[in-house]
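haha ok so turns out i had the wrong file open the whole time. this is the CORRECT one, sorry everyone. sequence first:
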Amino acid sequence: MDVYDPRDLGKAIRRLRKERGWTQVALAEWLGINPVTVGRLEQGKPVAVTIAVRAVSLLGARLVVVSKAARVEVHDPDDPNG
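then structure:
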C-alpha cells in the first residue's frame, strides 16, 4: 500500500490491525500508549513519529521512505524468483 500523507498511514495501520484481529486497546497496550492515541493515529491526526514507526513494525509491516519522483521496483526477498 502506498502512503502519501498521515491519513493514508492511519488507514494502513487500521487495516493491518484489523487483519490481525486486534482492537485499538490491544494495540495501545502493546505500544504502551493510550488507546485514544491509537485512534488519533488511525485517523491521520498528529502523533509522535516514533509511535507510528513502532506501530508499523509491531504489526509486521515495513516502512520504506522514498522520493515521490523515484522509480521503485519491489522484490520479495523470500521469493527465489526475485
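The chain has a mean pLDDT of 91.
again sry for the mixup
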